[in-house]
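Continued from yesterday's entry.
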Amino acid sequence: QVQLVESGGGLVQAGGSLRLSCAASGRAFSGYRMGWFRRAPGKEREFVAAINWSEGRTYSGECAKGRFTIFRDNARNTLYLQMNSLKPEDTAIYYCAAGGVFSRPAADVEYDYWGQGTQVTVSS
């Protein structure tokens, strides 16, 4: 099992920045892809970004391009999402997830492990 715990969410003004963290434990991650998804109230879960743990290759959803950056700290087994130029439409619960490196990065069904989420609220 892999356990994932998100943190770093909060309330921020439009145009501001947040850095989300996902602390992972329970397994080695050399064969994993880890990602961020988000879910706004009444909407489907949306892919934000993913990273292959070993090689660092990244994938970005349309909502993340130009504004969000995914990266990891191997020594800390921690995944991050740096979010800049935040907009009110970024308001959502953000979830960290882990799955196989050969899965489709943007497909939530390919991820086996999920955190509980951290709330991001962007005010206008």
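--- second protein ---
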Amino acid sequence: QVQLVESGGGLVQAGASLRLSCAASGRAFSGSAMAWFRQAPGKEREFVATITWSSGITGYTDSVKGRFTISRDNAKNTMYLQMNNLKPEDTAVYYCAAARRGWGARNEYDYWGQGTQVTVSS
């Protein structure tokens, strides 16, 4: 059982930056990977980025490559998403997720956060 606590969302102008955080509660996370997803109104949930917990291997959806950076602090059981040069198209509720096994966009994620709103104005 893992509980995920998200923070860092907000309202910003296009071109600004935000850093999202997702902390796993309880004992140190022993799963394989964590990831960020997002969902905009009227759209399906979309994969954004993932990171393997032990090795730090990362993956991104094409639309955020070069702008977003996923990272983790194992000692703090916390995952981050640094979002630079934000665009209105990035507006969505961002969710963090954790997987006991596997990683990547199509992997099964076992635990989900409640979501944090990111709004980018033009």
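The first strand starts at residue 4 and ends at 7. The chain has a mean pLDDT of 95. Will compare against the first tomorrow.
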